[in-house]
Amino acid sequence: MLKVVLDRGGADAVDYSSGTSLLTLYPISEVDHRPFILVLPGGGYHHLAQHEGEPVAQWLNSLGIHAGVLKYQTGSVEPASLIKDVEDALQWVRKTPKDWKVNPEQVGIMGFSAGGHLAAISAITGRVQPDLLLLGYPVITFEEPYAHKGSRQHFLGDSVSDEDIRSFSADQQVDNRTPPTFLWTTANDASVPVENSLLLAGALSKAGIPFELHIFEEGRHGLGLSPDNESCLQWLDLCANWLIKHHYVKKGTQ
């Protein structure tokens, strides 16, 4: 279930329901209809990394994109309920009348780490899909030897079947409905192995889905906007240029 609030002086935009996932909105002041990107922070499904939420939404605002941060359920989660909260957020953005204007055909998802897993599995298998998918050092597979065990344990629990592991490994579910995807990660990520992004890139290539993948040689896990890593900081311009190509950002804005 989903509750929606507007981050403008703390005023409620709408109480969608008294649920456990909270969508905080960061709209921009524009006359024209503008794209929207839903941001899902990481945290291993154990907590939510704050630096992968609001600061990312504010960066998207600087590019002329409406944004929202989904503070989704963590701990012992119910996968179907979690994915439905993402779907409800996308549906709310596309369908609900607002003072600010959204292009309903330009609604994307951006996720980091475990939030990248939730973004990917929702975008690939969900009934309500985004138009673009953007992933930073994402958890993709729950299969050994590249699984992030903490994310898998919180998402699926202690007793899991091979079928569940496969069903919630995003690379195993890619098909021709998967949206165009931007990925970035680091080669020496010690928490979520680079093979996660490589597996998804391979699946996207096989399915003929447009994608862009950037792997930086060095960088710790959880960099977010990467203010302390000059090399990885490049992902911001690379992503902005990709968004220009997909008409989410006006040329010259980045």
Provide the descriptors you would attach to this structure in a database record.
single chain; 254 residues; eight-stranded mixed beta sheet; 7 helices; 8 strands
Reconstruct the topology from this structure.
Blueprint: E1 2-6, E2 21-26, E3 34-40, H1 54-62, E4 66-71, H2 79-95, E5 102-112, H3 114-125, E6 132-136, H4 149-156, H5 162-167, E7 181-186, H6 195-207, E8 211-216, H7 234-245
Helix pairs in contact: 2-3
Could you please describe the fold and organization of this structure?
By secondary structure, this protein is of the alpha/beta class. The chain is built from 7 helices and 8 strands. It has an 8-stranded mixed sheet, sandwiched between helices. The chain is globular and about 50 Å long.
Describe the structure concisely.
The protein is of the alpha/beta class and 254 residues long.
Average pLDDT rating: 91
The outline comes out as: globular
What is the makeup of the main sheet?
Answer: 8 strands, mixed
The oligomeric status of these chains comes to: single chain
User: How big a fraction of the residues is strand?
Assistant: 15-25%
Count of helical regions: 7
List the helices and strands in order. Answer: EEEHEHEHEHHEHEH
